Amino acid sequence: MSIPDSADLAAARIDAIRQAAEQGDAQTQFELGHMTARGEGVTGDKTEGAGWLQKAGEQGHVDAQFLLAGLYLMGDGVAQSAPEGCKWLEKAANQGHADAQYLLGLMREDGDGCDIDAADAVRWYSQAADQDHAGAQYRLAQLKEHGVGCEIDLTEAFKWYRRAALQDYPDAREDLLGLCRAHPDLPLPVSELLDGKGRS
């Protein structure tokens, strides 16, 4: 009895994934879409890959929604459409995808592909920051420091700069020191000094 070689096993795996995807399984639709869009193990076809990601995204697969958003924003395998990209980003963000929340915050802050809404940017950054997304923590700190989309709250700005700095996010440590120098009487949040995230 011959032992199947690695190429045969890989082909059998692809066939199994494709069969499950065609039967409507969201996870395998996502896997097939990701593989096809990138040409990993199958012939690369970004348009076909986007189609599988869309099928998975329509079933609520959060990673498919996030990748599909990127395809629409970049016009990669689909017609470029910032509104469509925002729509899929928001679907992923509403399911708690931290990178989607952060990117949606950036887009709401800058009006890149959607209406400027600084308060909504704060909302999305806050949700991502609570999941330890360093970029969101840094942007949230800046908005809290300068009162963009929210009231000025230097104590909150300190907290989020510090958490981003603890993750070595670029400029966070420098901005944290700048905040403390500019406001030497700033009351430091005790929780930041005592809890696990407050330890350096």
TrEMBL record:
Entry-linked Gene3D superfamilies: Tetratricopeptide repeat domain
Alphabetical list of SUPFAM superfamilies matching this protein: HCP-like
InterPro entries: Sel1-like, Sel1_AlgK, TPR-like_helical_dom_sf
Domain of life: Bacteria
SMART domains given in the database record: SEL1 (SM00671)
PANTHER family, per the entry: ERAD-ASSOCIATED E3 UBIQUITIN-PROTEIN LIGASE COMPONENT HRD3, SEL-1-LIKE PROTEIN
Protein name (database record): TPR repeat protein
Organism name: Rhizobium esperanzae
